[in-house]
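Hi all, long-time lurker, first post. I run a small reading group and we've been trying to get comfortable going from sequence to structure in the token notation. Rather than ask abstract questions, I figured I'd post a concrete chain and ask someone more experienced to write out its structure so we can walk through it together at our next meeting. Sequence below, copied exactly:
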Amino acid sequence: MEKDVTIQIQELEGRIKSLRASQLDELQDKLKEARQVVAELEAELAKITGKAPAIVSIRRKRTSSEDVRSGILKALASSPQGLSKKQISDITELNYNTVVLYLKSHKKDFKSTGSQRAMRFFLK
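-- Answer (accepted) --
Happy to help. Here is the structure in token form:
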């Protein structure tokens, strides 16, 4: 008798899990449809108003550490008189804080002259 009850409980729990999974799938499908409707409405609004549709929640692409390194090295190699952090940032089109953090954490790879804002960086 006890075995029958535990088997029935396990079967019911399995059914509950499958029902929850199917419910979740249905909700995700509804969400996709709703997002498509919103995108169509925004495009229609943009067409009427002449303004570009609002771009919602697009995450910016993360720059890999290898890309940061190669960009900074190329910039410094092209400038024998050295560059400031701001100039490196402008040339490489990297975020200024990314350049500052990279240069700070890799001091041994670069020569520098000056102090604070007048600091210029060179390849060793």
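A couple of things your group might point at:
Strands lie at 110-113, 120-123.
The mean pLDDT is 87.
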